[in-house]
Design goal:
By secondary structure, the protein is mainly alpha-helical. 76% of the residues lie in helices and 1% in strands. A two-stranded antiparallel ribbon has the order 1-2. A hairpin with a 2-residue loop joins β1 and β2.
Length: 276
C-alpha cells in the first residue's frame, strides 16, 4: 500500500519519474523492516498468518534482519541524490521512534483521545505522510502540492491505524495475527478508550485492574471486549474514520486529475472497509 501511495501522489502532481520508483521501493522495504522490529518489541509470534522472523529464528536474528532492510531502504533514497527525500527519511525515523516511545509512556494507563492520536500520528501515519509527500516531490516543485499530499497521507495513515485497532477487538477477523493483543501489552486504543470514557467508575477501575495485572486470561479479554461492545467503541472508531475520510476528500479538491483523485478516494475507502 505504501508504494501505491507514492506512485499515486506522483501521478496526481505531474507524473512518476525514476526517483518516484526509488522512493516507492525504499518505503516498502522500510515498512517491512519496521514490522520485523515491531514483532521483536511486542514479542509477536505471528505476522500475516505465518510465523514471524523472531519466532522462526530468535530476537537477535530478527533485529539484524530488520536493520539490514532499513539500511537497504536508505540505499534507495540515496540513489535519488535528492536531499529533500533524504531529509524526509531522517524525519520519518525520528517520528516513528517517538511514536513507539509515546506508546510505551502511556502503556497500562488511559490516554486522552488527543494523546492517542498523537501516538498513532507518529508511529503509523507519519510513514503514509512521507510516502505521499515523497511522491509529490519526485513529480513537482510545487510546495503547496507537497503540503497537501503530506496532509492526505497523514489522514490515510490515521484511518489505517484506527482500522487496525478495530481489528484487535474483532475476534473473528482473519488478519494473520492474534487479536486482543493490545490490552495484553497495556495499550488502550480508540475502541476501548471510547468505552472507558462512557463507562462507570467501577467499570473503568475493573478494566484497568485487569490490564494492569499483566496476565490477561481469555476470560479477562472477554470482559474487556464486552465493555467495548456495550459502549459501541467500534462504532465510534468507525465514525472517526468517516470524519477523517471526509477531510481527506477535501484536501484532494485542489487537484485536477479526476482519475487519480478517484483512485486515492478508493484507496481511502479500502482502508476503512478492508478485512485484513
Amino acid at each position: 500500500m505504501r508504494p501505491i501511495v507514492v506512485l499515486l501522489s506522483a501521478r496526481l502532481c505531474g507524473g512518476a519519474t525514476h526517483n518516484t520508483y526509488e522512493a516507492a521501493a525504499a518505503y516498502e522495504i522500510l515498512h517491512t523492516g519496521s514490522l520485523v522490529h515491531d514483532d521483536v518489541v511486542d514479542n509477536t509470534m505471528q505476522r500475516r498468518g505465518q510465523e514471524s522472523v523472531n519466532a522462526i529464528f530468535n530476537n537477535q536474528a530478527a533485529v539484524l534482519v530488520g536493520d539490514y532492510l532499513l539500511t537497504k531502504s536508505m540505499r534507495f533514497i540515496s540513489n535519488t541524490r535528492d536531499l529533500r527525500l533524504l531529509d524526509l527519511l531522517v524525519r520519518l525515523g525520528e517520528e516513528i521512534a517517538r511514536g513507539e516511545l509515546l506508546q510505551l509512556q502511556h502503556a497500562y494507563s488511559i490516554p486522552t483521545e488527543e494523546e492517542y492520536y498523537d501516538i498513532i500520528r507518529h508511529k503509523t501515519a507519519s510513514l503514509f505522510a512521507v510516502c505521499a509527500m515523497s511522491g509529490a516531490i519526485t513529480a513537482s516543485d510545487d510546495v503547496e502540492k507537497h503540503r497537501k499530499m503530506e496532509e492526505f497521507g497523514e489522514l490515510l495513515g490515521l484511518c489505517f491505524q484506527i482500522k487496525d485497532d478495530i481489528f484487535d477487538y474483532t475476534p473473528s477477523a482473519k488478519i494473520g495475527k492474534p487479536t486482543m493483543n493490545d490490552i495484553r501489552e497495556g495499550k488502550v486504543t480508540l475502541p476501548l478508550l471510547h468505552a472507558l470514557e462512557q463507562a462507570t467508575e467501577a467499570e473503568r477501575s475493573e478494566t484497568m485492574d485487569l490490564i494492569n495485572s499483566h496476565d490477561i486470561t481469555d476470560e479477562a479479554a472477554a470482559k474487556v471486549l464486552s465493555l467495548v461492545e456495550r459502549y459501541d467503541g467500534i462504532g465510534y472508531a468507525n465514525q472517526q474514520m468517516d470524519r477523517l475520510t471526509q477531510r481527506a476528500k477535501e484536501v484532494l479538491n485542489g487537484f485536477e486529475d479526476q482519475v487519480t483523485k478517484e483512485q486515492f478516494i478508493q484507496l481511502m475507502e479500502y482502508v476503512k472497509d478492508r478485512k485484513l
